[in-house]
Write a structure and sequence with these properties.
This protein is mainly α. It has a single domain, classed as Globin-like (Orthogonal Bundle). Helix content is 72%, strand content 0%. Helix 1 packs across helix 3, helix 1 packs across helix 5 and helix 5 packs antiparallel against helix 6. The longest helix has 25 residues. The radius of gyration is 15 Å and the shape is globular. The model has no long low-confidence stretch (mean pLDDT 94).
């Protein structure tokens, strides 16, 4: 069965929803998210806007992912490790590969890899301030 590429906001919402369902169940990642996010419906919409902006450059995203992740790390006694970003990225890739294929799907993987690296480095820097 042939899969389609990520083409619409609904596609992104599907990806984000299925991905975060996996994250929430993950024994390593789940606690960071489940203890932090109180309104999952709103958060999924927010993340859909983030990825729609990132992939299609047509939606304005208002938010500061770096600040949010630094706060989560501090709230969890600076326990976020590089391995957590690796787990996160693997789940992201698995979810994309299950649902989509094509240029936007591959771009979503590249952007997530770059974003994960950037966030982890900035979290580490923030610990030393």
């Amino acid at each position: 069965m042939s899969k389609s590429d990520i083409k619409t906001r609904d596609d992104i919402y599907c990806l984000v929803s299925q991905f975060y369902a996996k994250v929430r169940e993950d024994k390593e990642l789940g606690p960071f998210f489940n203890e932090t996010i109180k309104d999952w419906d709103a958060h999924l919409e927010h993340l859909t806007s983030f990825w729609e902006s990132s992939l299609f450059l047509k939606t304005r995203y208002y938010g500061n992912p770096l600040e949010a992740h630094v706060k989560v790390d501090a709230a969890h006694n600076h326990s976020i490790k590089n391995e957590h970003f690796g787990l996160w990225l693997n789940l992201w890739y698995q979810t994309i590969d299950k649902l989509f294929e094509g240029d936007h799907a591959e771009n979503a993987k590249r952007r997530a890899r770059k974003m994960g690296t950037f966030l982890y480095l900035k979290i580490f820097e923030a610990r030393n301030k």
